[in-house]
Amino acid sequence: MPTLTIDNRRIEVPEGTKVIEAAEALGIMIPRFCYHRALGSVGACRVCAVKIVDGTRKGVQMSCMLDVEEGMVVSTDDPEAVAMRRHVIEWLMLHHPHDCPVCDEGGHCLLQDMTVSGGHGLRRYLGNKRTHLDQYLGPRIQHEMNRCIQCYRCVRYYREFSGYRDLGVTGIGNRVYFGREREGTLENPFSGNLIDICPTGVFTDKPARYFGRRWDLQRGPSVCIHCSLGCSVTVGARYREVARVEARYAKAVNGHFICDRGRWGFPYTNEASRPRAARVDGEATTVGEACAAARNRLLHVAETAGSEAVACLGSERAGLETLKAVAGICRANGWADPLFWLERRARENVAAAVSLLGDDLVLSLRELEAADCVLVFGADPLGEAPMAALALRQARRQGAPVFVFDPRPVELPLDFHHVPLAIEDLPECIRSLVGAAGDRETARGADPTVRSFTDQLAEPSVPPPPEAVAALRTSRRPAVVCGTDVTDAAAIGLAADFAALMKAQGRRAGLFYLMPGANGFGAALAGTEAASLEELLPRIEGGEIRALVAVEADPLGLYPDRGRIEAAMRKLDLLVVLDYLDTDSAAAADVFLPSTTVFETGGTWINQEGRIQIVRGAHRGGIPVSQTGGGGHPPRVFMEEVPGGQAAASGQTLTRLSPAEVKGASEWVRLPPDTDKQSGTRAVLPDPSALRFAPERTALSGAAGDEAMLTVIAVDRTFGTEVLSSRSPWLSAEETAPTVWMHPEEAGRVPLSDGDLLEIDAGGGSLVLPVKIVENMARRTLVIPRHRDAAWQRLGATRLRIERDCIRKAQPVGENAPVKESPPR
Amino acid sequence: MNPDERHYRKLKPVPPQRFRTISEIGEALNALGQGFVTTFRHLFRKPITEEYPEYKRTLPERSRARIVLTRDPDGNERCVACYLCSAACPVSCISMQSAEDDNGRRYARWFRINFGRCIYCGLCEEACPTSAIQLTPQFEHVKREILSMVYEKEDLLVDHSGKDKTYNFYRWAGIRTGDRDKGEHEREDKPVNVRSNMP
Ligand code: SF4
Ligand code: SF4
Ligand code: SF4
Ligand code: SF4
Ligand code: FES
C-alpha cells in the first residue's frame, strides 16, 4: 500500500489507485469531466491536471490517469496546474453556446461549476462557434449537442457499462458528435442515466423540461418502489408536484445508476385522476367522516356476523408501516388473518425465499457484480428487476459466464447462455446441476444433511448443459439468481440448496432472489400467519367473510380470475379501500379513503435481499399547483388547507378507523443504531440451515414432458406491467403490447403465424391475444405479459396448465378484441 | 485609542451640571434666542422643498422602484423564465413557472412579484441574463389593498425594451427557435455535417 502526499497531507491507499481517487479520499475534489467512479478514467478532458512534485513522472500530469506511487508528492494548487486547468476550461468553453438561461442543466451543471471555480469568467474568444444539429431521442431525453464538451462519458456508459449499441460517437477533431445513427427513441432501458452522467446539458430530462431549477426543488432521498431491488433515488418536487427522480448513489444496491422504470415511473403521484377525497357510497366527504362510517359499518358487520367475518388485505407495494398496521388491525379486532398476497403461489414462493435466505449466502446487487459465474433460474432480470440485468452485465464484463434457465424469451444486454426450458422442468434442471457441479466427495464430507441430500438426489432425466458444468467447476465465486414470480417453491428451495452446497464446497457462493413488488420481503415478514386472497375466496363466496378492507391493494384489477373476484366482491356487504391510485377496487369501494405515496410520507421498504430502507417524504403533497391553477398562475387567495391535502398514510388511517385500539403504531419499525444511512441495513435473517437440503426436494416431480398440456405464465416486463410505472405516459411507447409469445413449433401445431390472434380458454374465461412467435423460448409454453390491456386477469392464475385444445386460432372480430373489462357496480 | 473605544468613552454618564454663574444663564438664553431667530427668518424665505405631489420631478433612469418585464427589440417577451431573479431575490418575492411555447422559446407561463415584500434592491435586475426584468423610477404604487400589491405577469409586462434597447437573447442563444435554426445565430458557423470526414 503506497503512501503519498497530496497538498502536504499524507495518505495510504491500495496499489492501483489513481491520484484523483486518493485525493478524493482526503476530501480534495480535483476537477474532472471524463473521469467517473463507475466508468473509470480515459484522460479525454484534461481538466484534472495536477503537479507531480516528486515521483517517477514529474510535472503537470492528469491525476485520473496516474497510478499512485510510494513517496509521490502531489500538489493540486501549484500555479502551473491551476493555469493548465484554467486554460483547459477556456478551451472547452470556446464553442459552448450562450444558453445557460434556457438550459435545464443550469444550477446543477458540472461545467458551470468548473468554469466558475476555474476562474474563467469572461469570454476572450470572439470568433464563430461550431454548431451541431440535434436529434429526436424519444419522449424522455432531450438532445442539445452544442453543449457537448467531448468527455465521452455518455458513450462509455451507454456502450461499455450498459451494453447497448444505438448511441455512439462520430466525426473527428472539433466536430465529434454524440448521437444515434438515425433519429429515434433510445433503445436502452437504462438510458435515463445519460442525464445524470453527462456533465453538461446535452442530455436533459424531457418530461421535466423547463419545470424548474434544482435549487427550487424540494429534494429528498428516497427508494424506488417499482421493483424489489429498492434502488436509491433522489426525488425532486415543487409546487406539490413530483418533477424528477434521479439516481442516488448507494454503494451496496444500485451504485450510481437506476433504470428508466424507476426514473420515469412516478407520474401516478401527480395524476389528475388520483383520488384525493374520501368517499362514502360514492359521495365525497371528509376523511374523518369516512373513517367514522367505515368504523361503524365494520363494527356492524362484526356484531352481526362475528369478528371473523372481516378481512384485511395489504399488498407488496405498500410500505412496512402499512403492512404492520394491516397485521395489527386484524389482531386487535380479532378479524380473519391478514392477507398480503392475491395468490397462494406468490405467498408460498416469497415465504420460501425469505426463509431460505441466510446471512451466509445473501448477496447484494453490488456483490452480484463480483461473481465469477452466474446461474439465473426462472427469472427475467430485465423484466422483473431491471438493474439486476445491469449488475449481470458488470459480472460478465469481468469475465463471468452467465447462464439463464427460463422459459421466457429472455433478453439481456450481455452475451449469455439461455436455456429455454419449460418452467416445470426447472427443479429438475437445478437438481441435475447440483449433481454435476461439483465434486460430490467434498460435499459429502461436509455435513450429514448435505450428504444425505446429495445421495438421495435422483438421477437427472436431463443432462445439465456441459458449458454450465464446466464453468461451475472452476468458479470460485458462483452466484445463484432465482426468480419467485414464475417459479415454484421446489425451484426456490433447490436454488438455495445449490448455493449452500457450493458454499459447503468451500467457495464464496451467493444467493440472490428476485421478488414481486417493492416490499415482498416485508410482506413475508409482516405476518407469518398471513394467508392469501386466493385461499380466503371460498370463505367470501360462502358468505362467511362479509367485509373486506383493501389497503393499497387492488384485488379487482389484479386478481388473476376477474370473473370470480367480481362475483366474490359483489357478495361482500362492505368494501373499504385505502389507496392513492384510482384502481378498479377503489371505484367499487363502499368507503374509500385517500392515502399518500412514498413521495409524501415515505416509509420503510425491505428489498429482496432483506435490506431495510427507511425513507422520508420529499414534499407535503396535495393537488399540484399546475392542476389547481389550470396551468396559469396559482390562486391569489390562500387558505390554510392544502387542496387535496386530506390524504394520510394508510397506516395512520387504519389505526384511525379501527374499532379496537391498535397499539404501538409508531414503534413498529426499529433499526439497529449502526444503520448505514446511505444504503439502509440488512435485516438480521433467521438461521435457515434447518430448512435447507430438505429431502423432499431430491425427488422428481415429473410434471413436465406431458405433450398434451401447455403451461401459461403471465409475466412481468420492464415497462407496462408493474402497477405504478405502467401509468407513466412517458414509458407507454416502450411497453410490451398485449401479446402472447409462442415457440415456432407450438405455433406450427395450431397452426398460427406471427400476428395471428390466439384464443385461450383458461380458468377464468377466454382471452384473445395477438401471437408473437419467438425462437428463444421454451416449448409447451405460452408467455403473456401482464399488460393492463391484455385481459390476463381471465387466465385464472398467473401460472397454470391448460389442455392443448384450449387454444385455437381466432378471427379478428371486434368483440373479441383484447380489452379490459369495466369495473362492476 | 481605537475609534470604538472613543465612542464608548463619550457615552459614559456625564455628571449632572448646575448653573454656577449669572453669565452661564445669559449664555443659555442667548443660544435659545438665536435658534428662534433662525426659525423666524425662514418664515419669510422662498421654500426650497418641491411640493409633491403637485410637482413631480423626473427621476434618474436608474432609480429603483416598480419592476417591469420588458420586451426585446423585435417585440417578443424577453424573459426566458430562467429563475435567476427569483434565486437572487433576498426576500423571495418573485415566483414563476417556465414553459416552452410553440416556437421552442422558453418563457414564463406565469410570473408573479409580490411588491408587498419587495425591497427594491435591484438584485433581480442584476441577475437577469436577458435584460428582461428592470426596475423603473416609477415609485408611486402604494395600494391600500395588500393583495393588489401582488403583480401577475400581465401587470408586469410592458411593450418597450426599457433601459437596454438592443439586447436580444434568442439571437445569441444557439438554441433552435421558430425564427432561428442552428447556425443562424450571431457568431455561429453552419452546423457540422457529421457524415463527412472532410476537414
Ligand atoms: S454528450 Fe455529454 S457526456 Fe457525452 S461527450 Fe458530450 S458532454 Fe460528455
Ligand atoms: S431496478 Fe427496480 S428498484 Fe431499481 S430503479 Fe429500476 S425499477 Fe426501481
Ligand atoms: S428588487 Fe430586490 S427585493 Fe425586489 S424583487 Fe428584485 S431582488 Fe427581490
Ligand atoms: S432573470 Fe430575467 S430572464 Fe430570468 S426569469 Fe428573471 S426576468 Fe426572466
Ligand atoms: S478527468 Fe482526467 S482527463 Fe478528464
Protein described:
The complex is a heterodimer of chains A (about 800) and B (about 200). Chain A has about 800 residues and is α/β, with parallel strands linked by helices. Chain A folds into five domains: about 5-95, Ubiquitin-like (UB roll); about 125-270, no CATH class; about 280-340 and about 530-595 and about 645-655, Rossmann fold; about 350-520, Dimethylsulfoxide Reductase, domain 2; about 710-815, Barwin-like endoglucanases (Beta Barrel), CATH 2.40.40.20. Chain A contains 26 helices and 36 strands. In chain A, the strands form ten sheets. In chain A, strands 15-14-26-25-24-16 form a six-stranded mixed β-sheet. A five-stranded mixed β-sheet of chain A has the order 2-1-5-3-4, sandwiched between helices. In chain A, β21 (about 480), α17 (about 490-505) and β22 (about 510-515) form a beta-alpha-beta unit. In chain A, α9 runs parallel beside α17. The longest helix of chain A has 19 residues, at about 285-305. Chain B is α+β, with helices and mostly antiparallel strands and about 200 residues long. In chain B, about 25% of the residues lie in helices and about 15% in strands. The relative contact order of chain B is 0.15. Chain B has a three-stranded antiparallel β-sheet with strand order 2-3-5. A two-stranded antiparallel ribbon of chain B has the order 1-4. In chain B, β2 and β3 (about 105-115) form a beta hairpin. Chain B contains six helices and six strands. The interface between A and B is large, with 42 and 40 residues. Bound molecules: iron/sulfur cluster (SF4) (4 copies) and FE2/S2 (inorganic) cluster (FES). The site of one iron/sulfur cluster has 14 residues of chain A, from α6 and α12.
